[in-house]
Each structure stands twice: as C-alpha cells, then as structure tokens.
Structure of Solute carrier family 22 member 31:
Amino acid sequence: MGAGLFSVAGTLLLPGLAALVQDWRLLQGLGALMSGLLLLFWGFPALFPESPCWLLATDQVARARKILWHFAEASGVDPEDRSLEESSLVTELAMLSAGSPQPHYQSPLGLLRTQVTWRNGLILGFSSLVGEGIRASFRRSLAPQVPTFYLPYFLEAGLEVAALVFLLLTADRCGRRPVLLLGTMATGLASLLLLAGAQYLPGWTMLSLSVLGLLASRAVSALSSLFAAEVFPTVIRGAGLGLVLGAGFLGQAADPLDALHGRRGFFLQHVVFASLAVLALLCVLLLPESRGRGLPQSLQDADRLRRSPLLGCPRQDHLPLLSPSDSCWAGHTPQQR
C-alpha cells in the first residue's frame, strides 16, 4: 500500500518536473539516474538488510543472527543482555545453528509440487493481469467524456489514491477475499455495461462507469499483490510476489493493442478482458482467507491454507471437497449440535 502511494506521488510530480525540464532527453536521464541510485541498496547491505525471517526459513542462521544483532544495537538494546526475552532468542538461535545446517533454497519451480499454493498464485496472477489490462478499456471510454488533456491523467491518479484508501479501510475489516471479490465484480460489471451500452448510454453514465471501472480495477491489482504476499510462503515469497507483479505488467503491455485497426482493436480487447474479468470473479472464490492468520513459512504451511466459506465459520479452513455445512459442525460435540 505504501509503495502504491509513493507511485501516485511520482505520477503527480511528473508533469511538473516535465514542465520544469522541458527536454525529454534530460527527463529520461533524470529517471535513469534515480533508478541507478537504487543500486546503492544492493551494494550496501546496511542500508537495506536481508529479511531475517527469510534467512531463518532457508537455514541461514549465522546471517540472521548478525542482522538481528544489528537491529538490536540500532534500537539501543544490548544483544548481550541476559534478560528473559533476549536469552530466549539467543537460546533459540543457538538451537537452530546446532550442527551447522546448510542453506536450503527453494526454487519457484517448487510451486509445481504443491497442491494448493500453485493454484492460489495462478489465480492472483490472473486477477492482477485482468486488473491492469482492462484499465486501457476504461481509459478509452473515459477519453470522449473528458476533452481536456491533463484531466484524465490527474483523475486516474486520484482514483488510484481512492482505491488504496478504500483497501486500507476495508481489507483488514472485511477480509482480503471478500474485498477482492467485490472489486472483481465491480470491474466486470462496469466493463460489460460499457461494452453493451456504448451507443445507447448517456454521457454521464459512460463517465460514471469508466470511473468505477478504473477505481475497481486498480483496487483489484493492488489487493492481488497484497494477497500474494500473505499466501506465498516465506521461502519463495519474493519470487511468488514477483510473478504476480509480472502478470500485472503483462496486462499493461496490452494497452497499445486497442489502437490496432482503429475501433476494431479496442472492441476486441474490451471483449477479451471483460470475459476474463468474469472468469476471474469465479476463480477468486477458490482463494483462502489470509486475514488474521500467520504468514506461512514453508511450502507445507502454505498448502494448509484452504478456502473457507464467505459466510459462517470464516476463520476455519476447509478441504476443497468438504461442504460448508459439515465443516461448520466440525469440532462440536453432539450436545452442542
């Protein structure tokens, strides 16, 4: 969420920077320079250290101990203090490092050996692709309704902020899966209505549906990334999240297709992504709910995240073939029934 807000800030600052520079070559060079500064984080690990959770999950106990000690010293805590909490951490790290375990890395191909995790990742990648790819259709429908040049640009940036604020207010309160389901439903409904009534709907209705579609599609793509970070296990969380984000960038790559053969290319792209949005709506129902649960550490932990019904027993996982009625009674005595 925070990264999305920084992205919006850059979007809003870009027109002012372009007006100040007035040379696209210099502007491109400034962008490349700022991106090159990010390499400093790679060259100086103290500025951006590795995750201790990932190091412990991959049996790199020595590196994890060094980073945790660095965190303790930076926080003003003496890592050699033998209080109860610190001594338990020291004891646990000593037990983990017993026998000098070798680092154990997991390849993203390991997802193919899982039963549930690969499906969850595939669904989230698919929803991210649809959320990013369908935005070109809403932009094209919005353009005739907003004749000024800069207004659609700033309107889309404002809608991105609104989508992130909406997720901040609802994702923890209502859960990830219901909010993703609502966003996918709104995206598909707005797309189908624009597709069916493009020649019959009044201008204000077209504008409202385009704004709704842009808002919902941005919420879907952002929540898919957040959901992926909670569904993939620690050992391959970075790779899994990268795959989901890559699917979103693949959807963005379809933007120029609406210019092929004029109106026909736009209509074909709109039909395809509207159909994919309806399919994504059905696939989201298969996802588990990650709210209130600990992050999975291993592939086995991630496979234990099963889907749960939207209503009733929301915090209990269920096997895919177990009916919600039976699972809601699971764990109750006959007297309680």
